[in-house]
Amino acid sequence: MCGRLNITDSMGVRALCDQLDISLWPEDGMRFSRFIKATDRVSIIFEDTSGQRIMKNAIWWLLLDKQHTEQGVRFVPSRYTSFNTRYDKLNTPRSAGYHSYRQQRCVIPACGFGETQIVSGLAGNKKHYHDMQVAEDSQLALGGLYRIWQGVDATGQAFTEHSCSVVTLAPHSKLKNIHTKASPLMLSTDDNSLQQWLDHNITEPDQLEHLLSPRLRHSLLAQPIDKPSSYTPVGPAFCLKAD
User: Fold this and answer.
1) Does the pLDDT value for residue 121 go beyond 70?
2) Angstrom distance (rounded) from CA 193 to CA 199
3) Which domains does the chain show, CATH number per domain?
4) Distance (Å, rounded) from C-alpha 5 to C-alpha 40?
5) Does the structure show a pLDDT above 80 at 122?
């Protein structure tokens, strides 16, 4: 899973947010963009200890560093890569996602995501890009983790910052020609996987283990593109059917 997301204002994204019955929305509104990259802000949904569904805009980088400035404390992405959290590290006690996996799970409503494959040839390495997208009315949600950081601004007022990562699984066989290293955790309300991931009452990893096997819960349209910033097609799109 590479560090770019497609979160446009689609029927599917709106329907998913409505279905999740969010109690509290971000003051600055939900974050929409055709190209959200790692370290940007992205809208996440999580369940607090009272069972309320809350949406916050979070930095897409799980580990943050605290910086002291004239304007007070600010949080910036750490030097450790953490926009994704590997499934095989979730039960490693000292890993970045260990505690969040048990207590701070979230979902990211999305229209799609981008993948990059590096192919070696006689002329050297070349990057091949694909734009993966679900149908306009499809309700794709990526499973993630979040953390909350506490700071004080220049006026002495306390504030909180949220950060997040996308959980990545082993490669999926249907994506082997698109990305061979990993696949994102894709969830759905149809099979209750999304509800289980959000459930704050679930704190035992064994109860979530079945979600950590690669699975396409939605059909994906894969479009080869020249580069993520322009999305110019460089070949015919093709469909990857849901499992």
Assistant:
1) no
2) 10
3) 4-111+140-171+183-213 (3.90.1680.10)
4) 10
5) no
Matching residue, tokens 């704190």: 203
State the virtual CA torsion across 44, 8, 235, 127 in degrees, nearest 10: -40
Cα–chain-centroid distance for residue 168? 9
DSSP state of 31: -
The C-alpha atoms of residue 220 and residue 134 are separated, in whole angstroms, by 5
What are the tokens at 102? 């048990």
Determine the average pLDDT of the residues in 158-178: 94
Dig out the tokens for 115 from the structure: 């993948």
The residues with which 115 forms a beta bridge, in sequence order, are 130
Task: Supply the pTM of this predicted model.
Answer: 0.95
Token reading at 226: 């020249």
Q: Is the predicted pLDDT of residue 171 greater than 70, yes or no?
A: yes
